[in-house]
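dumping the sequnces here before i forget
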Amino acid sequence: MTKLFGYKVAATDGKARRGVVRTARGDIQTPAFMPVGTAATVKGMLPENVAATGADILLGNTYHLMLRPGAERMARLGGLHRFMNWAGPILTDSGGFQVMSLTGLRKLTEKGVTFKSHVDGSAHFLSPESSMEIQAMLGSDIVMAFDECTPFPASREVSLESMQRSMRWAQRSKDAFGKRPGHALFGIQQGSVFADQREESAAALKGIDFDGYAIGGLAVGEGQEMMFDVLDYAPGMLPEDKPRYLMGVGKPDDIVGAVMRGVDMFDCVLPSRSGRNGQALTRMGAVNIKNARHRDDPRPLDPECACPACTGYSRAYLHHVFKANEIISSMLMTWHNLHYYQELMAGLRGAIESGSLSAFAASFHARREKGDLEAL
Amino acid sequence: MTKLFGYKVAATDGKARRGVVRTARGDIQTPAFMPVGTAATVKGMLPENVAATGADILLGNTYHLMLRPGAERMARLGGLHRFMNWAGPILTDSGGFQVMSLTGLRKLTEKGVTFKSHVDGSAHFLSPESSMEIQAMLGSDIVMAFDECTPFPASREVSLESMQRSMRWAQRSKDAFGKRPGHALFGIQQGSVFADQREESAAALKGIDFDGYAIGGLAVGEGQEMMFDVLDYAPGMLPEDKPRYLMGVGKPDDIVGAVMRGVDMFDCVLPSRSGRNGQALTRMGAVNIKNARHRDDPRPLDPECACPACTGYSRAYLHHVFKANEIISSMLMTWHNLHYYQELMAGLRGAIESGSLSAFAASFHARREKGDLEAL
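..and the predicted 3d for all of it:
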């Protein structure tokens, strides 16, 4: 594990970047979508099948894993990769986002956050230092700095206070992380929807010097228009020679718009969660398989899709197994959605390489506007 | 679909038979275990993975499928095979067992059974004629005669009345089935634990002439000892040149004992259901993965097993995902159990071929008695 972490831009198209993130566990082709494996599993998928969809990297959730099975146990068992049978790179979040969401169950001080486990009610503490330690025990390849995801909406004053604390925590995260060849640490920009605070945050992070930079505090209820307003300027405040990761995003059109604004990495529970809820995401828009109109439909979900759900099964079958609450419903719908997401990322990468991203995006939007796939 | 159904015995060892059932959709190596795909899915498994465990044939449940998605719909969609993406043979039960179990919700007459759907409460009717029609609409390769699975315990009088009605229904099933080249119809022996009634039932079935013969009314609470008592004589009452199918059996040691008594085919929900419930079935006995002793155990479930659960994951992982209620727990545990069952069947087939079934059975029992795998 002595190979160093690195990032190289291979091509650009406008603000969009086609790059490669090199890690000790393999390359990540960017723009990249990272499926979420919260509790050491991408729900409903075997890891080899996640890889087959084209995913280069998974995301793991520190909060969930520290509570169950526990970070020390994970370390004794050889780390998260071996535990969940995934040989490729893993990015772990810091746990901050989840513990901040535990309204009424957590207490925030400058030192860190005390909170109660949703599993057994036991008391826990997370800080920049403990988050770095836990992520190291998990064996994460890309470690995220511990911060507060500023809620939306926030006043200028609340946002500023939160962002500045996150920047102090970013420095403490860097100090605690130390030097770990082959492992990377990403800082997280905050500042809500305020450009001057985004600039102040970016400057602070650059001063600390990270291996990559995330854009935090978006996709928290501000809506796509306001998110894109921030993304019109926020990525450009971050170093050009480091990967940029937009946390928790998003819907397919969010991703296309963010890539065009210079973002390289994404994660979101949407494809897996909506798959379990019977929603297929396709190039023609969303298909709700629970809709009775699919009951007798012999056609595949998306006739252009090469995933196992679309090549092996009718909409009638997918409707049936969803209604019957069968496990295979979650398996097939999740597989389709992850396949579609990875195909979208591959399309975006190809378009940047060939300098045709605008045309790609125009076609992407036209097909979605034209086509209610469900009604075809 | 003009290829005829057939059965050929390739080798025997005592009463045990090593054979091949030929169907239009492929051969079934016997002794065979048929995984149960109740609602057009083997719960938690993709059909290609069921095939990878070594299964030649699946079982589908007429009762569940007629209610949801419905037999007419299934026929319009091209039948059960296409619907569930399984190209191999499928055996369907008659629906009789399930509707008889609907205590208080069904009414039995000579004509058939009126019952209410567990899905939506709607009224339905099943008879020999309608069961044959529904199984034909499903596209079943091996159709089961409509009968009553006599409950246990039953008095001689109750059993006799039930068996004789089932034999009248067997004749009506045969008449309704007619001639369908490439599709087979199996009759079902009843008679509870009464040898004279088993003989009378076998004689009636042979008089009607079926493509194969099932032994019904066992594994319904009588216990293994009493079941084996019946199996000491019941299979021998059935034709030697036709396959013999013991319905709803069973545990691994039930299967070994029944094969030694001349049974060729089995089905049971045990491997899939117990997998979902966190119980692994292994050559050393059962392992309850929810047991806290597995929490830190880096070893595989069964070090000798080549299934994906055993080659890719620790007991600690399997424990974790079971406790976290993750879908992958059902997926991996079911895969292991089905793999083990098919490996057991392959072992039995090999032992019969080489005339070493007694030694195989002795070793099978010795390993289970010696080894609490869980405690190793």
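Chain B touches chain A through 36 residues (CB under 8 Å).
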